[in-house]
Amino acid sequence: MRPLPVRHGRLPVRRARGPLARLLASGVAVVLLAVGGIAAYAVQDTVRSLKPSIHLVSASGKSVTPPSVGAESGAVNILLAGTDTRTGQGGQFSSADELAGSSGAGNNDVTMVLHLSADHKHATVISIPRDLMAPIPSCPTSGGGSTSPQESAQFNTTLSTGGLSCVVLTAEALTGLTIPYAAEISFDGVIAMSNAVGGVPVCLATPLTDPYVGLKLPAGQQTLVGQEALAFVRSRHGVGDGSDLGRISNQQLFLSSLLRTMTSAGVLTNPLTLYTLAKAATSNLTLSDTLDSPTTIVSIGLALKSVPLSDFVFLQYPSMTDPDNTNRVVPEPSGVRALKQALTTDTPVVLTGTTGSGTESATPAPSATPSATPSPAPSATAAAGSAPTPSPTSVSLPSNVTGQTAAQQTCTKGN
Fold first, then answer.
1. Burial letters for 293-317: b for 16+ Cβ neighbours within 10 Å, e otherwise?
2. Confidence of residue 106 (pLDDT cuts 50, 70, 90)
3. Mean pLDDT, residues 365-379 taken together
4. Could you tell me the pTM of the whole model?
């Protein structure tokens, strides 16, 4: 099927939430240091675009201290929380959007934890469902007090309950990781980032229609830019079973394609594109004060840059339907045990399940017109459907844990 042209939607500009910037803000700043004359100005100007940072406090009440640049030689754990707040965001939402959103700090409707292995050979990105019912610990507050622990509460309330530190503490309990870096983010940067790389190609197995975000796309290959890219990653009602879990798999599809686009298009060697991406990411981030140092961002970016796409695994936190409320999910014990084992022992994970309810594996279509010159064979990291092979040094996750690698090419399923 011939790819359709770049689509420019006429959607209202909306702030949304998501994962994207964790790769971009770190990776792009790295290469800016090595591209010559514009490097110093680009880094300084990018850093000036950062919003005021957030101070993280541990469960003991002690401050989280950023390590030196050299400390990034080991494992790195970063949390990204996207808020649904409408406060201070002008009149860019419809009435329905205003009613659906929150005020103040808002809820963390999208939360992802990135674990980069100590040897920098593999990375795992865990999407924690917003509707996950889990214990919420007592969280220190900025005024020196603390919130009351909750035996079971919806995960996406942690940001409004106790700020970014509370999201981090709850995620640490769920994953077994210690997470020193965190950021609050919006998906406004998706518009600028998708434009900077010339659009993000996505595959639709079926048409996708979602009136809640004003999206209507035909089946086939699409290249999304700007507001239409933003609507695509926001869509829930039009994807899979219409649940947040379906949206998670759709976002993983988009992020995987964005990573492939960046690496295949030579983005990391183009200083102007890097600068644009860095500005797009940092302008839509509020970092913890452990992460707002340019040298820290640079050192993390250097480490991330070495991970092959086939060893960059996106997965949904192991969960199952809550027996007390079918609109919620709870941790699934066997999957949680396997995931925690892998994360705490710094071992690669291997997915054995599907890509998720919102996506399916893509089958590459033959070229419509034969080429006179044979095309080069795809690399191991870019081959469709490639995934890590189980070994004595990897942990196979149960088949009920969904996800994909950044190398896998998948297609969105509309509902």
1. bbebbbbbbbbbeebbbbbbbbbbb
2. confident
3. 38
4. 0.77
